Each structure stands twice: as structure tokens, then as C-alpha cells.
Amino acid sequence: MVGESVAEAYGRRWSAGAAVRAEHFAALSRPAWEAVLAAVGVGEGTTLLDVACGSGELAALARARGAAVHGIDAAEAMIALARTAVPGADLRVGTLEALPWPDSAFDVVTGFNAFQFAPDVVAALAEAARVTRSGGRVAVCNWGGAGPQDLVAVTHDLQALAPDAALVPRRPIGEPGVLEELLRAAGLRPSAAGDVAVPYAPPDRRTLERGMFAAGNLRHVERHLGPEAAAAALATAAAPFRRADGSYLFHSTFRWVVARRD
């Protein structure tokens, strides 16, 4: 839409399929969430902000560890789901580039598959650093690392079939070394990193279709091709990962980096 900001556009796209996306993919990132929460020592009394918090599952895990949780997302429908997942938490609709909290407000700021959506990644990371206390950590996690990327490959195959609807350039933020460089440019000091396997196993083709086309970065493909053609294209792209019983198994990897604010 004319005059719509990048954050507003992303918010609209991810709001449209928020409930379905949460239903199908809410648990996909859990191994990475657990790894990062352990790496930064989230526990009783930790103040944590999750940027692009989605439907709130990471915030719920952090609260279960005793943290005081906060979250922000551009998608109103995602925040509505998060408020159900983490009742009473400080959850707001907003952008990565203008976090509505004061300087040094948090012990930990997390961002899972988030910062690559900012028009200026370094500026968004610097904003995360601003709201992190001295000695606190910013933890960033993205598709990437040394392991397989089955879901990313299928997504890219589908995106190639429709006019490019990306609002910002695609960035290799998950490749080793890239995120560390961006974090340093934002004034942070990387201190730890790791890869985490995040398998996804939808039981049948219909479940796969429903989950994939709920994603804000694939909805334009379904609109462009039409539902039947889009489903056929997904079946072709996903065929190498289909098992004999009709289910699918996608092996994918997240890479996380923790950086300290001095």
C-alpha cells in the first residue's frame, strides 16, 4: 500500500496467517529457544525483551524460568496471540528500529529470525543494544549455520515463481561471520555462538500446504499463482523430503550468536 512503512507491511503480511502459522510452527524453534536461554543464563529475575516476538512462545519459556518478559512485534495478530500465551506480560505492537523502552532496560534482548527484516540491520541491532544494560547480552538467531536448510530451499523455490515481494534485500545473516560483523558494527561484542537442528515433520501434504502458505513471506506466491497452482508447486519443491507414508521430514538449522554490551 502507498505510504505504508516496511514494518507496517510486514505486520499486515504476518498478521494475516498468524493463528495458522502459530499452530503449525510454534514449536519449530523450541530447540533454538532453549539453547539461547541457557547460553545467556535466563533465570529468576532476568529482564528479557524478545523482539519480533511472534505468538509469544519464547516469552512463555523465559517466564517459566522466572524471567520478567517483554515483547514487541509489528503484527497485531501475533501480539494478540502472545498476550494469550503470556498473560500480563508487557507486549507491544511496534518496530525493531524504535523500541519503546528506555536505555539499559533489559538484561537480555533476543531476536529470532527478526533483524533481517529491518531496512537497516545495524541500526536495529544498535537499538537492541541501547535498551540492554551494560554487561547484558543481545542474542540473535537465524536460519543458517553449517547444517542443512531444507525448508529454506523449498521457500526459495516457491518465491522464484512469483514477482519478488521482498520489502528489504535478502541477506546472508545466518552465515558464519556475517552476524558477528553486524553485531560489532552495532557496538556489541560477540561472545558465543552455536548451531541448532530444527527438524519439521508435517504428517501430510495438506498440513504442509496450510503451514507454509500461512507465512508472511509466501502468501504472495499463493495469491500470484492461485491456490491450486501454488499447492502443486509446493508439492514439487517438497517432493525430495516426502516419506513413503506421505509425511514429510525437513532437516534445517538455526545459528545463534550472543553478544555482550560493554
Walk me through the structure:
With 262 residues, the protein is an alpha/beta fold. The chain has a single domain (6-149, 165-199, 252-260), classed as 3-Layer(aba) Sandwich (Rossmann fold), CATH 3.40.50. It has helices spanning 6-16, 18-25, 30-39, 57-64, 76-85, 121-130, 150-159, 178-185, 205-212, 219-225, 227-238, and strands at residues 47-51, 68-73, 90-93, 106-112, 132-143, 189-197, 253-260. It has a 7-stranded mixed β-sheet, with helices on both faces. Strand 4 (106-112), helix 6 and strand 5 (132-143) form a beta-alpha-beta unit. The longest helix is centred in the last third of the chain and has 12 residues, at 227-238. It is globular, with a radius of gyration of 18 Å. It starts with 5 loop residues before the first helix and ends with a strand. The model has no long low-confidence stretch (mean pLDDT 92).
Features:
262 residues, alpha/beta, Rossmann fold, seven-stranded mixed β-sheet, 11 helices, 19% strand
SSE class: alpha/beta
**CATH H-level name... which superfamily?**
Vaccinia Virus protein VP39
Residue ranges: pLDDT <50 for 5 or more in a row? Answer: none
Main sheet strand line-up: 3-2-1-4-5-7-6
Architecture per CATH nomenclature, i.e. the level-2 architecture: 3-Layer(aba) Sandwich
What is the H-and-E element order? HHHEHEHEEHEHHEHHHE
CATH fold description:
Rossmann fold
Q: Compute the number of strand runs.
A: 7
Q: What is the alpha-carbon Rg in Å?
A: 18 Å
Straight-line N-to-C gap: 41 Å
Q: How many helical elements?
A: 11
Beta content comes to 15-25%
CATH class: Alpha Beta
Can you give the helix content as a percent range? 25-40%
